[in-house]
Amino acid sequence: MDGVSDYSGGNKMRREGRVTAALASAAAICALSTPAASANSPAQHSVADVTGDVLDCGSAQYTITSGSIKAVFHEGTSASGNANFTGTITTQAIVARDAAGNLYSIRGTEWFGSTNNAQQDTFQATFTGQLQVVAKRSGRVDSVKVTQHITFVNGNVKEFDFGTCVAP
């Protein structure tokens, strides 16, 4: 099936594998560094300007000229030491320009979450990215459509990528 990768038992690395590596690293750090005091802590909210960032879509590059992302993160730890982490990133009025000077809007959301079972020493994480590059009067021209799942029980990683862009 096109767009599906199975990394169990192999060293296969595709462009989306960078997201898997980043997700695994970030989630592992969060799972290991989540203090017990953060259980039931409120979500953390932030907004970041993304002007100057580039969305890589292979044959097209979109340089962001204005806009921001809103991020919401939440982490927790149970009394038994199990940990969880989740984050949602949404686009906020993002405008981008291609090499020819055409303007586009970038709309969508990325979500990721992880859990760590302290008793079984297991870890799992999921990432979904759904971003659309939209041109005035012609609709979607490129997209990020990625779903990844990592389970550190047996080294199993599943990745599904049906988009035309690399997930940021």
Question: Can you put this structure into words, describing what you see?
Answer:
This protein has 168 residues and is mainly β. The protein has one domain. The protein has one helix at residues 17-33, and strands at 4-6, 44-49, 54-56, 61-77, 83-97, 103-117, 122-135, 139-151, 156-161. Strands 1, 2, 3, 4, 5, 6, 7, 8 and 9 form a 9-stranded antiparallel beta sheet that branches. A hairpin with a 4-residue loop joins strand 6 (103-117) and strand 7. The longest helix has 17 residues, at 17-33. It is elongated, with a radius of gyration of 18 Å. Mean pLDDT is 79; it is low at 1-38.
Q: Which key phrases capture this entry?
A:
single chain, 168 residues, mainly beta, nine-stranded antiparallel β-sheet
How would you summarize the topology of this molecule?
Elements: E1 4-6, H1 17-33, E2 44-49, E3 54-56, E4 61-77, E5 83-97, E6 103-117, E7 122-135, E8 139-151, E9 156-161
Antiparallel strand pairs: 1-9, 2-4, 3-4, 4-5, 5-6, 6-7, 7-8, 8-9
What's the number of extended β-strand segments? 9
| CA(first)-CA(last) distance | 24 Å
Estimate what percentage of residues fall within beta strands: over 45%
Q: What structural category characterises the helix and strand content? A: mainly beta
Oligomer: single chain
Radius of gyration equals 18 Å
Number of helices: 1
- N-to-C order of helices and strands: EHEEEEEEEE
Chain-averaged pLDDT: 79
* Unreliable runs: 1-38
The tally of structural domains comes to 1
- Main sheet overview: 9 strands, antiparallel
Helicity, in percent?
Answer: 10-25%
Any idea what the shape is? elongated
